[in-house]
Amino acid sequence: MPELTAPAPRSTRSKGVGRLLVVVYGILALGATGRSFVQIAHSLEDAQQVPLAFWLSALASVVYIVATIALVAPGRIWYRIAWITITFELVGVLVVGTLSLTHPELFARPSVWSWYGNGYLFIPLFLPVLGMIWLRSRRRNLDAADRDASAAA
Amino acid sequence: MIEWLTIVQVAVAVAGGILCLALGFAGRKPNDYTLGVVALVEVLLVAQLISAIVSPFVGNTPSGDPLEFYTYLISALLLPAAGVFWALVERTRWSTVILGVVCLAIAVMVYRMNVIWFVQGA
To answer: Predicted ipTM?
Structure first.
């Protein structure tokens, strides 16, 4: 197969192991979006009130999509958005995970964060932590790139 | 859904996933073999889609929720396309690893689809 001659678009935050992280985020975003779509569609079909947990799942899935984009997109603004969305996910999985144990009537429904995400192999619990470690390690490169840019200017 | 097709598909996806992961961690860029395996997984998914559409007409209806089944199937169909696109844009060993992750994710999704069709609600 011929090598592509045009250089692939590069971003500072999407190299090495980080790419794997992006893919796992992408798959989680896809899974969470699909599932909350099915859950909400069925609740509406049965003319029930859509349970809070399902709306929260829908919100979570949108945030996962934004986080996936933010991890790939270059620049400082996206870097900040990546931090905000990943923090939101970590807080979400911890709060909802705890509430699903203490207040099962509220959250003991299959949502992406219930029981600390055990329906998703606990991926929602450890993925944000991996994401944060990785973002932190990219920070240095971002600062170095800024210094290079200002030195060149 | 046809049970033997599902077994073949899960076997191909797992074997292909392990192959891509091994070659990726060994430093290989995506090549005709790894991309071919992912293409084969996609072809099997299209076969699965055709079988899912035809099956109810010959009396093989899903025991579980069809909406959930098709959400999985359509998500699974998108993954190889995205993985191959990535592999063509970025020709590094990480793309090979990603192809492996895509294959393994599809294996899990097809297994789950099988549960929805045959076990859930039965």
So the answer is: 0.76
